[in-house]
């Protein structure tokens, strides 16, 4: 039975994580950390509640973190130093902080995972796109989001384009017309197109073309509940990881 | 039995048209016009061959034109004046020439059709998009073509965007982020995205979004043989048209 | 200002309708009907609340009905007899009941609409599919729903297939292999395929194929909020309808 | 420079292979085998032409086989025994023949590849589907082909379904309604749907669904020219293979 502490247990993702842990037969929720954890009626009597990091006086097997950019570094450091395998879904770690955490993990000989995106379909799309680009160097990315999304392209679409560019041999790419804005934004030579329409949620597709054939990979995120599948995968693997890896794709 | 003359009968589209006419039970190929028509072995003994317009000494029911931008105006004028219903697939008529031809058609009391695009799927897509825009004002166009296509966006995609813009009420449109080239080219407020990939032929899709739902219309042109379905529709209707209409959608 | 009564105002669809009416500048909610309407705190002081049909002592311009199969016939009859234009979204009317209501509407000289489906994208899909089938007689329907949906195919997919079959000329259809269950269920000669997967909500696509080209129409329903767009369209047109029509497509 | 013999060089695939080899900078066509090879004017003066297997008196680095089910076994055996790495695109080898050839390859210590499908997009689709099924056990396959295809489902779709079934944990699958033919053909629990429409060429998609999200992989084969990309990949890898592998996916 894996003993689990959930940090950020009263937030939107944290609540879903608590529910997930309670349902999994090989996991046990033993503690939560959140500013108002001790006052919350959400957690069972057997669950220890801590209102701040300094109060935590327990070592679980796994530390799941859905907190804030301000808290995540100290939290993860604490987890590693107390030999709890961290699963970090909180965003905001700088590259420098990530490196420091990896150094601590190595010293303490404990593995964990930092995952900017727990959506399995998005992570698999990126993984497959990277692999396909070796055989289909010509690729374009189209992402589609609700009308209210302010930034374009989406961070995931940019990451996908860069992975494709890094994976393919640019010498094999076709020369195409690029002098119209209709051809999209260029990321390392990969055109990225952004659609913004009401009704849509969060969707991405990668189109590959080669002589006489085409390959398309598409993912649709209909709700944030999808992230729990990724957390589940992380829970099943984190205790076997030899170091602190970045990206869910590293363990798929 | 409708008697048909095919102008441009030795060209790529003209050849397919000749084959189509020969297969249709209610049509009869009686004459062809092409610079080398009289030397061609392609046409049956019963078919009259003319090498130039001045030589044409016959009046058929229908004149099908797949010639050149240089020839099409005089050809169509000739057809109208000799009371042959024209079906014009040749591009290159100026708006002014089109107006003059329509005036001649009116004076001669003869109908016909000028169609820039005989692809039924493309024409239906434009028709449906126009109609859908009344209920889904938020729309984007994505067209996908082979890597060698030089211009972007395609003429059909631009035409589609303009039809959508003219049909919808702009006051009902969502405000979306537009400050990235990833958002495509703007045609009357409708974003148009162009994908250029090897393997692809000619494809277009229109994406509509509204609260909680989406509507997508897509057409794929795999080969030019598709145009013959549009010619077939024109053949079945042209003799009933009261004037010289522009666009296959006018008779669907 | 159109005066509106909402029947079934405390149900899921009714609540959304009340919100919609309150937002529309040319509509005014003047009354609600629901078993517990008078006890509900949801409605403003200016709104009359009736707990049963017998209590209704007001005549509004429009009667919107999202009640139950048991109540809908008497409700609609009442509305027509008191010269309120009915917009009926409740399912369960038998063909016989519908005919009787249409006769009453004709006698009372009042128009209205009975709409089994207020989803604009679904209604437009059916309308376009019907039209496209005249030019593309070869068609197949694929509907995709969440894994819990018990029936297959969906009612809308069956309705779509039947509309296509009624609209096309079966003589022009291709002969295809039909001896495998992989070819789907046959509705008047149109294959219908049903996909059931978790994550999916409610989606339908119609695929048309002709020589060298294809046309695809797809609709996605992400949430029931989409129905309100259809109610909005009905609200804008119902007072001009000369009789009691069935199907939102009749007024698009 | 890799020296190549093409067997079946006058057939449709063989001709394309000859053209491919002549274009590749690190490959040299040194011999062809075909019943009428010596009479064909297609091959350069430097290329040796053999009309039958018994006449072949040369050992190249690589033997590419696009011949007939009758000839392929003896051809491949000959290639292996003369230490030519075989790339076999001819279908028709029985499982027993394949085993015998693998034994010969092992004895002769020479690698090669037998590939039932050289279409890279189809092979990658199968590879990715297999991988995705581990995280998305709920999956359905839809394949779309031209109206003339007699069998349904396609061999590739069946193979895809079986790979998915073998890769996923069936205990994690959703229970879905299966009592309608609309639910397709069942292959090891994976529903397979077949669409047959004119205009379509050869297309396949795999739909995966999980809580709140979906993943779709699609491939389109527009023409047989696509197979040459797979042959190219095989040419670049075959000389490094330690044994005789089956399936292009084994070397991707």
From TrEMBL, chains A, B, C, D:
Keyword presence, rRNA-binding: no
Amino acids binding NAD(+): 8-13, 89-91, 115-118
Alphabetical list of InterPro entries matching this protein: DapB_C, DapB_N, DapB_N_CS, DHDPR_bac, NAD(P)-bd_dom_sf
Main localisation: cytoplasm
Top enzyme category: oxidoreductase
Coiled-coil regions, chain positions: none
Keywords: Amino-acid biosynthesis, Cytoplasm, Diaminopimelate biosynthesis, Lysine biosynthesis, NAD, NADP, Oxidoreductase
Self-association state and partner proteins as the record states: Homotetramer.
Protein name: 4-hydroxy-tetrahydrodipicolinate reductase
Organism: Lactobacillus kullabergensis
Gene name for this UniProt entry: dapB
């Amino acid at each position: 039975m894996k003993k689990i502490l959930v940090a950020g247990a009263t937030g939107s993702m944290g609540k879903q994580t608590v529910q997930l842990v309670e349902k999994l037969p090989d996991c046990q929720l033993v503690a939560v950390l959140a500013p108002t954890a001790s006052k919350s009626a959400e957690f069972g009597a057997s669950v220890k509640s801590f209102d701040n990091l300094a109060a935590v006086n327990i070592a679980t097997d796994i530390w799941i973190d859905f907190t804030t950019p301000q808290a995540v570094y100290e939290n993860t450091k604490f987890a590693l130093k107390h030999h709890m395998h961290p699963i970090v879904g909180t965003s905001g770690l700088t590259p420098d902080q990530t490196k420091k955490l990896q150094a601590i993990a190595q010293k303490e000989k404990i593995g964990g995972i930092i995952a900017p995106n727990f959506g399995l379909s998005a992570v698999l799309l990126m993984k497959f796109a990277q692999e396909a680009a070796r055989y289909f160097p010509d690729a374009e990315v189209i992402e589609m989001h609700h009308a209210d999304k302010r930034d374009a392209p989406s961070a995931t679409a940019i990451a996908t384009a860069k992975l494709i560019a890094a994976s393919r041999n640019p010498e094999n790419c076709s020369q195409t017309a690029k002098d119209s804005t209709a051809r999209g934004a260029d990321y390392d030579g990969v055109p990225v197109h952004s659609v913004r329409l009401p009704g849509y949620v969060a969707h991405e597709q990668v189109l590959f073309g080669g002589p006489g054939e085409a390959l398309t990979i598409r993912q649709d995120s209909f709700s944030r509940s999808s992230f729990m599948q990724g957390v589940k995968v992380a829970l099943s693997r984190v205790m076997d990881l030899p170091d602190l890896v970045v990206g869910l794709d590293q363990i798929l």
